[in-house]
User: Fold these one by one.
Assistant:
Number 1:
Amino acid sequence: MLKTEQRGWIKGRNDCWKSADQPACIADSYRLRIAELQARYRLVEATGPVFYQCDGNPAKEVVARFFRTEPPTAIVEFGDRSSLMYLEQTASGARYQGQNESLWEHDGEAIVVWGYQGPEMHCTAR
């Protein structure tokens, strides 16, 4: 699995030739890949797991682990799926964005979107 993922990452990195700022594109590509590997293989310290109950339904549980990578990352699980997310700057709280998922946390409350154009789930840390 790692070998396949690495090939995909290399292909994406090599697409930096199309970028207006090739050195920045390549540097960002390496920075994100290193953070991903550190989080996925638990190579750095993590906070959590944090369990969130969403929409008042005990069956709608979201589990998040937050990693001290650069940039900061989270691995968030919902059902039988997981998503690697990167921290984005916000005015308040912490917003983590994955490929089609997001988690916006503030004071033990979170808004989670799971899947492309998925509905917002309103969650509380337990």
Note: Helices lie at 2-14, 22-40.
Number 2:
Amino acid sequence: MNICIVHYHLKPGGVTRVIEHAASSLIALGHRVLVLASEKPTEDLSFAVRVVPALRYTLPNEKIDPGALAFEMKRVARAEFDALPDVWHIHNHCLGKNAAIPEAAAKLALERSVLLQIHDFAEDGRPANYALLRSQLSDISKLYPVGPQIHYAVLNGRDYQVLETAKLSKSNLHFLPNAVSVPQTTSSTEEVPEAKGRRLVLYPTRGIRRKNMGEFLLLAALADSDTLLASTLGPANPTARPIYDNWVDLARELQIPVYFGLGEDGRDFGALMSAADEIITTSVAEGFGLAFLEPWLFGKPLVGRDLPEVTGEFRDTGVNLDNLYGRFTVPLDWVGETEFRATLKHALEKYYQTYGESLPENAEDRAFSAAVNSGMVDFGRLDERLQEIVIRRVVNDHKARHALWGLMKPSLPQADVEKNQKTVLEHYSLDAYGQRLTAIYDAMIAQGSGGISNLPSDVILKEFLKPERFCLLRT
């Protein structure tokens, strides 16, 4: 089978890792694979890559013609396969990084089967992305094309339920958990001199807003003197850099034992994971949640914040995540109820306005009740300004610091780490992933083709746009 995988780019990150896993597992099964991206990858890959510049992230005032994009994609694929691919496999078509892709996908589906794999929704905490789609799509209702030959793959049960609610046929909807694998490495803590003999707790992530770097810094402030918390990468997007740099500056000012950007000198991801004593996550939102699986493959315990919307399926397969916390609460009076409510109100109004929707009745109260319980507010529901107030208090007030000791649960025993490792290898292997993908492709081709219509985009938006789900770090 000839398969053409499409994404905006192949820069290091979660989706690129998914594409690498898919391509290698499909090639191992005898399929021909071509990957299209807007630019050449920064490192050598084991599969064919061709550049289609119009797949790039677009600026708000930049518009790409969907028909021209589809034509160029077909031209490049024909040059590789001497024919159109049997399946187009497009990642994150609806993310709002390039408004031409949804309609281009529909045009490709006039001739071949198309799989639209969604990692993230623009409707889920990405108002600027959705605004770009609203301004540049000929009709926002064309965001989710459907037809017998157009299938969707999602990473978790939450996203599956959203598309079910929008009346996507179950025969065209697939649950496709990502594969995980471990690169070969021989590393020890000696390769991280910054640790200086301390326990290394690693946050393998890019420090964008939803990764909740303020909570990472708070936990570093609460850590024992023999522990160093370190993150791997700063944001790639220049617009996200100022917030990240503010956290770096605050850590330096308050002398918090933390290291930002441990992987920015080119050190191997696998080597850093192997060198760590524990892996941590404080993220408030994930698509699939590789962060909840990869640590176990390296034989490392995971600590930090749970995301039940994402981790439910992992637990169902037997992965033990009982030591993660669902909320990290601090006294509301540390930031002030009036101040928090005012911040919520202003942000909610702007958030809904950007999505082109009216604010629901009692939206502020509903968002407040989701964040606050018995006078305690979830730290992950605060914005950076309010988080900084808490961090300064914890650093400068021993009583405040003592009040938060014990909220961070200890890591699992080694026996549970080994059990999790075995479970992840069994359920999320590359072999299993390639077989799942092939079965989906076969089902798509067998189903044939037909007319193309669209899912109700307003239904999908309303599934995500609920005050109870509102998070200031996702505005």
Note: The two ends are 42 Å apart (CA to CA).
